[in-house]
Structure formats: C-alpha cells, structure tokens
Amino acid sequence: MEINLKGKKAIVTGGSGQLGRCIVRTLAQCGADVAIHYHKNSEKAEELAAELKAMGKKSGVFQADITKEQSIYDMRDKVYEQFGKPDIIINNAVIQYTWKNILEQDPADFFSQFESCVMHNIYMNQAFVPHLIEQQYGRIVVMNTECAALSDAGSAAYVAGKRGLDGIVRCLAKEIGKYNITVNQVAPGWTISDRARKEHTEVQPDYDRTVPLGHRGTDQDIANMVCFLASDLAAFTTGAYIPVCGGRVMPAI
C-alpha cells in the first residue's frame, strides 16, 4: 500500500513557506502535479517549481493575496489556464504576527487572523470547489493548529481565527460530501522546519517535555498526513480535525 497521487493536480496556498515547501515536495513525490501559491516570496516559489519539474512533475507559481477575494479569483483563472484544474486543494497560508495577551493585542491582529484563516478558506472554496463538484471528486485539506484546542495564554488572535476555520470546515464537509469531496484539517504542533534546522533550534526542552512522544514533530510528519488525507486511502474520512503533535492534543469523544 502506498500514497498514490499519480494523475492528480494539487494547489497549495503558502506553498513557498516553511511548511508549504515540504507539503509541495511530498505531494510531488506521491505523484501529483502541484501549483505553488505565494504572496511575496517569488524566488522560493520558482526554485521549488524547478525542483518539481526536475522530478518530471508539472508545476507553476501563482501569486495572490489570500485575504482578498478578487486576488484569489484572478489566481484561479491563471491556474486553470496555465496549469489545469486542481483535484486537491491545500489551504496552508496564514499571516504571521507577534503574540500578546488579549489586553495588549492590537485589534488589527484579530482581523488579520480572521482574514487569513476564515476568509482565505471561504474565498478558496468558492473559487475552486465548483470544479470539484462538477467532476464529482475532490480533496480539501486545511491547516489548523494544536493551539486551537489548547487555547494557551497569548494565542487568542490565532486561536480565534483557527476556531472559526474549524467551523467552516465542518459545515463544508457536510455540504459537499455528497459530491465525493472530503474536507479535513491537519493540526500541527510546534513544527521543526528548515528555519529551525538552520538555526539549530530543533530541541526545545520546555515544550518537548509537554509532548507525550518527547519531541517536536517535523514538517515531513505534517506533509505525510496531508498527503494521506489527499489520497483515496482517506476516501471515507471527512470533517476531521487531526492533531499531528505527538499526543499533545488528544480530542475527546
């Protein structure tokens, strides 16, 4: 048994970012062609697309501001014209900001998280899902976070955005399941990516001791779950919130 995405086309928002790059590469390794969305990091996106083409996979880079509806629709039109119509949608992009306690947090940060978590997904769904309905098949995988379940002090803007996202995913899964489209969430913990490897900050004792498995997960751990949910191995899983955080979050029944 293997994760086989041969013949599938995927789009990854935030594909040029730390986690996005690993997701893009892993989708391609599983056989998918991948459209790479970026906001500002065109250089990384182009480098990644070149990697995929060297693997024999079709790729392309597409710019958009994921908080702006028209920008998403403009990107969709270019993706359809230059790359094709994706079967797999990976909504991974999010706006980064400095965490503070609620009483100190700039209200603009709450709006930015709502825009990049909730509205980002609404715009992507409204733009790309009609094709999935038309072809009676699709996979949507959305990036959430362990923070949505933990609600730690200082994370309120992020948590509010991701909890709103959770509601969107659950409703969407019920609305479009009849079209053979699954919608699931992957919820990473504090993940080791290229930046941490470069800075040699993989080990974080205070955090690691709170993880039942004893260490942080990697971007590859997250990408593996994304690809599983994007595949037909997960054809009967939808509406799920799946933590990939070493057991730090264990949703209860």
Automatic annotation (TrEMBL):
> Keyword Oxidoreductase on this protein?
yes
Instruction: Name the keywords, alphabetized.
Output: Oxidoreductase
InterPro entries cross-referenced by the UniProt entry: NAD(P)-bd_dom_sf, SDR_fam
Top-rank taxon of the source lineage equals: Bacteria
Q: Which Pfam families match?
A: adh_short_C2 (PF13561)
Tell me, what is one Gene Ontology molecular-function annotation carried by this entry? oxidoreductase activity
The record, for Gene3D superfamilies, names: NAD(P)-binding Rossmann-like Domain (3.40.50.720)
What GO biological process terms are annotated to this protein in UniProt?
bile acid metabolic process
**Stated family:** Belongs to the short-chain dehydrogenases/reductases (SDR) family.
| Protein name (database record) | SDR family oxidoreductase
- Please tell me the species this chain comes from: Anaerocolumna sedimenticola
What lineage does UniProt assign to this protein's organism?
Bacteria, Bacillati, Bacillota, Clostridia, Lachnospirales
